Amino acid sequence: MNAVLNALADESRRTVLEILRDHPASAGELAEALPIARPGVSRHLRVLREAGLVDVRQEAQRRIYTLRPEALVEVDEWLGSYRRLWKHRLDALHTEIARGKKAGR
């Protein structure tokens, strides 16, 4: 999970994942979407591959990248306990707001 979180810490890598969430893309297409030089994009893609967040396949002379959402499952499970905490707190806030509206009538 640490490799995934480290990969997600960078804005450029998150941008790549957002693009790949919608559709597979070539390294060139991803480079065009980022304000960094191609060697930097290649380094980001390597980090994402090593973290298991993307797959790559060769199509002729192009490398096509796809998102591997299953790599995010462990992070999602870890965040689940925090979601439950916030849901409980937001439910309590909703209850207090409703009480305040009743008292104001």
Principal-axis shape: elongated
- Give, in order, the helices and strands: HHEHHEEH
- The number of E-state strands comes to 3
- Largest sheet data: 3 strands, antiparallel
Structural class: alpha+beta
- Residue share in β-strands: 5-15%
- The low-confidence runs, each spanning 5 or more residues with pLDDT under 50, are none
End-to-end C-alpha gap: 51 Å
Assign a percent range to the helix content: 55-70%
Explain this structure.
- Helix 3 packs across helix 4.
- With 105 residues, the chain is α+β, with helices and mostly antiparallel strands.
- The chain is elongated, with a radius of gyration of 20 Å.
- The mean pLDDT is 92.
- 67% of the residues lie in helices and 13% in strands.
- It has a three-stranded antiparallel sheet.
- The chain starts with a helix and ends with a helix.
Helix-strand layout with pairing:
Layout lengths: L1 H7 L2 H12 L2 E2 H7 L4 H13 L3 E6 L2 E6 L5 H31 L2
Helix pairs in contact: 3-4
